[in-house]
Amino acid sequence: METEFPLQVILPLGIALMIFGVGLELRWHGFIQLARTPNVSLIAVICQFLLLPSLAFLLAMAFDLSPELRIGLVLLAASPGASTAVFYTYLGGGNIALAMALNAFGKLLAVFTLPLYTALALQLFAGGGMIPNMPVAELMGRLVVLVLFPAMVGMAVGYRFPRFARHARIWVKRAGLLMIVVLVVWVVMREWVNLPEMLAQVGLPTLALCLAAMTMAAAIVHLMSLEVANRTAIVLITTMQSGGLAILVATGVLETPAMAVPAAIYSLIMYPLAGLFAAGMRIQAS
């Protein structure tokens, strides 16, 4: 199947721009901070890369979904945290430096974990060979180009030209976010005929995944007695997933647009819920 123009250009460029914008704000001392607080970092990694995908697998099996939607739900949960989680952490009075470092580290780790979880979902849910096998090597290569390379270039530019980075980063990330929003709308329009049925199928599972992710992360960071600012950062990084990257993998690599529907629906759900959580944490901190 030939990949359409929006997927060839707009979505990859939007993702690369957003991650480049994150890279402009990063410094090596952010990663050093993660190494100096291994308990906080370990909790964040467990929540996002172990428990969240596990929740997605359980919900995919619990609900009566098509194979495409089940795989799409896992693909969404296996994606790295959204770059906008850093902004929501700021709104919630959380630890912005921690959120930025976790966001960048999560994108690097997802280069390896996303193909593994997606391949497992394909084996479990793609019955009868209806859905093609995932080219793991191709996906990892694309993630390196779209995630690892822009982040490293952004860090290098930010270090070498700090004044330019301060002025450019907000506009770079806004441009990337706009492109991703356009592509979410494009996916909705492409699947418009099947959307009511898919929304009826996947609306409740995506809402359940978002609420379960937020509740699970909040409970764990509370039990571990982390500082309030760190709790806010970890909960938002866990809850807010990169729907744009999930859409790109579903439509551009697996060439199955129906798999992108959970990511599109989740993106509509997570922003108001994350906003409510951030507002609550801001009130608690004041």
CATH class: Mainly Alpha
Radius of gyration: 18 Å
Percent helix: over 70%
What's the order of the H and E elements?
HHHHHHHHHHHHH
The first-to-last residue Cα distance is 54 Å
**What characteristic shape results from the CA principal axes?**
globular
Can you give a write-up of this model?
The chain is mostly helical and 286 residues long. The chain has a single domain (5-285), classed as Na+/H+ antiporter like fold, CATH 1.20.1530.20. 82% of the residues lie in helices and 0% in strands. The chain contains 13 helices and no strands. Helix 5 runs parallel beside helix 13 and helix 10 packs antiparallel against helix 11 (228-239). The protein is globular. The N and C termini lie far apart (54 Å). The model has no long low-confidence stretch (mean pLDDT 80).
Descriptors for this entry?
globular, 13 helices, 0% strand, single chain, mainly alpha, Na+/H+ antiporter like fold
